[in-house]
Prior knowledge:
The structure holds 2 protein chains of 2 kinds. By secondary structure, chain A is of the alpha+beta class. Chain A has 2 domains: 105 residues, CATH 2.40.50.100; 210 residues, Chloramphenicol acetyltransferase-like domain (Chloramphenicol Acetyltransferase, 2-Layer Sandwich). Chain A contains 11 helices and 17 strands. The longest helix of chain A has 21 residues. Chain A is elongated and about 90 Å long. Chain B is an alpha/beta fold. Chain B folds into 3 domains: 203 residues, FAD/NAD(P)-binding domain; 111 residues, FAD/NAD(P)-binding domain (3-Layer(bba) Sandwich), CATH 3.50.50.60; 106 residues, FAD/NAD-linked reductase, C-terminal dimerisation domain (Enolase-like, domain 1), CATH 3.30.390. Chain B is built from 14 helices and 22 strands. In chain B, the strands form 5 sheets. In chain B, strands 1, 2, 3, 4, 5, 6 and 17 form a 7-stranded mixed β-sheet that branches. The longest helix of chain B has 25 residues. Chain B is globular. The N and C termini of chain B lie far apart (71 Å). At the A-B interface, α3 of A face loops of B.
Amino acid sequence: MAKTDYVMPKLAMAMSEGTVNEWLVKDGEKVVKGQELASVETEKVVYDLESPQEGYFHIIMAEGETINVDTIIGEFFDTKEELKKATGATSNACAAVEAVISIAQENAQASTNTQGENSPANSRVIASPLAKKIAKDNHLNLSLVTGSGPKGRIVKKDVLAAIENTITTTAQIAPLIAPQASKIASEQSERARIPFKGMRKTIADRMKQSLQTTAQLSSLWDSDISALKAVRANFVAREAQFETKVSMNAFIIKAMCYAIKQVPIANACVKGNEIVVYNTVNMGIAISLEGNSEFDGSLMVGVLRNAESMGVVEIDIAMKALVSRVRNGNATAEDMTGSTITLSSTAGIAPAGTKTTPVLNTPNAVLIGTSTALDKPVVHQGEIAVRTMMPVSLTFDHCVLDGEPAARFMKALNDALENPELMLA
Amino acid sequence: MTVQFDLIIIGAGPGGYCAAIRAAQLGQSVAIVEKESLGGVCLNWGCIPSKNLIHQAEVFHSMLEMESVGVSVDRSKLNYSQVQANSRKVVKTLTGGVAGLLKRNKVTVLTGTAKVTAKNQITLDNGKVYQGKNIMLATGSRPMVVPGFEFDEQQVLSSSGILAMTKLPKSLVILGAGAIGCEFAYVMNSFGVEVTLIELADHILPTEDFETCAILAKSFKSDGIDVRTNTRATAIKKSAQSVVVKLINSQGKEETIVSEKVLVVFGRVSNTENLGLKDVGVSLDNRGFVNVGDYCQTNIPSIYAIGDITSSPALAHVASKEGEISVEFIAGHKPSIVKVSSELVPSAIYCEPQVAGFGLREDQAKKENIQVKKSVFNYAGAGKTIAVGKPTGLVKILCDVKTDEILGAHIIGHNATEIIHELLLAKHSELLPEDIAEMIHAHPTISEAVMEAACGINGKPIHG
Lengths: 425, 464
């Protein structure tokens, strides 16, 4: 076959549309299999598309356009002649690219005149001159940034936040040094190679940045949640009434809010040269995401806002809605930003009694890690008894708080977990 | 029986009364307590009467210009008590205006001294008790008393005392060359008083840009004011006719000056005493300021504090803005900012030439090792300044090296306090110097100097 259509691939389960941020090949260029064709952006991440085949590539979709998956974005031709015949293009590939770009610009202009289409890439971007300059210097596509200024104007802090998140930057397309390594005879039998790109790279960068820029350490203990289990059972028994089966995590979040009230410094972030201590508790919740294949699962931190003002039922409902939005790719910017403290739980997945020391979700100063509870003999009220013990860890940034407040926070949290009636305070 | 309000504000200065009006506009039932006059220090014994005196001083001073065209002006009949009476008239007009605004917005005005007696309750000195869902403290500040320099308001004056003065002294020593000290130095000197201005720091207006202050000091000296920096007053001694001020400079040289009166303007202290704050548990810092977080909320969620009693800059326009942010939050709205950011607060000193500025200063950039792009344009380069005989002054803009973000701007010269706002708007809305440089400015205006200074950040001014 002389011609093969190339469509916007579905890169994640939740992906419904994608934007070609940048073509990495010229129109009409001969490409080889595995060569990077384009940088494509979904709601969450930027991916580099690799060519599935060899051939002369004709670009159809202009840069910056957002289209549904499975829409044709380019074509492969076996020979140069077929390409010329089909596209009517001159041999000057650059001219063709310019033509594509100018069409894109015309489209953009037309859509501005008609007050814009739905696609963010097509509507006029309102941004302060300073925000525009910083975005340009950092190769940031402003159409993907949400503005917080008057009438939604994009201002400096929005751009800085977007750069910090890196998720929306096109600049993060790491040059994939795809060495001819595979040709160098390798002794091991490989199952897969996963490039550090997109979400994986973002996670890798953030984890390293967390470990390199903070003085974090963890303390571990077990909380006796036997009483809490009984309290939860009362809520579970009223599932129909509350319209939710209140989870243990909802109680843990409530207990964290109680402890924050006792030791406010635990609810803090490092911002530039300052430590900001918050009144509101925006609970970051580590959420695992399934990938398409065996190895591309990932992790995101969803944010449950104003947890301090909610009861456990409300927390549970809001948390479950948040998790489902994050997992279905419908999370809003509010769902993904502004956490003041983090909860990371491996309960139900890790073996009972597992001790965890999760990496801090910067800029938060504190993270609570919980895991699967274990029934074991302990001394309770002077007797050896079987109690349900939940492993809990506190990871904290020593730059922000010292051992004394950290210990008080642990004690307050343990107090609430072991004496659930305190959560009424 | 107690009366219940949504919001009770203690203090009707520019912070309190603006907050009261805004809260009423947002549908809150509001009471405001004032122990003296509506408008607070700003309107009664500060900004407003002093600006009137400055205006009259300017008019009096500028009469001399007529001599060059052959009109001889007899200034010897100056009746200062009438000058002072004029300033009180202005105050009366404006306090009446505030009363009218409060009435129109259905704000209940309570006269008396209030004490916070519970988290949601105040008690007046007449014993009446009022409940407020929220309470806002806006009690302001008063002149700082330093031992050995206590005010008698006859010979040793505070800023309020000099505004009440109805007869000009022959000579006046001013201790402290901050905004108030410099403004009175200009006023009194213009009316013919022999003025000596004493400042401990190495330049007058120690919190302003050093280059602008150097120009002001030079202008003061050429007008005949005796300006002494790096100098400290160690004691004063009063006799029936005069006050002897003992001075020591940074080299240790001692000196005495004899003067009819002394104006002591060392600074201001916040009015946080006798408010019952300790009893209800409102937390103060070690300088006596009320600790506040976002939206000026204190550690007691139902109690807010704004203006001079917090550690933010002690300026009327800061208090007003804080009041607005606070009441919008109280009324359940989402204010666009959670607190006043000091880099966006303009300063304004109203002597002639005027001084105005905001944000980063050059000396501060040096000290904190911040790399800046700098552009300075002299007033004399703008034709209008020559035409109106006010060529002394400059516009200085400091920008971020990489992004061109405006980090600070400082102006000295005629009308500086009005002109600064073009640059402040640019900073506030994140405009770049090129936006100002490209905008057409009317000719001839002093604002052209701002445009030219903006041109100088990434290019060259035409008239520079």
